[in-house]
Hints:
alpha+beta, five-stranded antiparallel β-sheet, globular, single chain, 157 residues, 50s Ribosomal Protein L5, Chain: A
Amino acid sequence: MPEHALEKIVxxxxxxxxxxxxxxxxxASNDLVVITGQKPAVRKAxxxxxxxxxxxxxxxxxxxxLRGRRMRDFFQxxxxxxxxxxxxxxxxxxxxxxxSGNYSLGITEHTVFPEIDPNKVGKIKSLEVTIVTTAKTDExxxxxxxxxxxxxxxxxG
Length: 157
């Protein structure tokens, strides 16, 4: 089996609440800068959805793509510090692969990151972390992440 590696890590944060609160987008952006060390790109709605009071062009998300050293540092922080701090943590799901060896993980509270002071947070935000690997299958991706120290939940097998 050829040796696989991490290609990039993408961190997303939904900011739909920014429609009613202009400071929310700025606060979320600042939090992502602190967490990732990189300025996030603002993602805008492609089309209007009346049910959500959303117009095309409204900001709906923030995205950061990490590569190289920042990616490796973020991965180490995620595995060794952030995940163990999650409440009732028994390992990450083995089911969250996309079929192509990439892994996605949701974090419901951004306050588990050590850089964020929970006393200074107005609203708790959730974020999604996608780990893109050079692996072509979920099995290869699982082996790679397990070797890198990703704490998967114990299987009942």
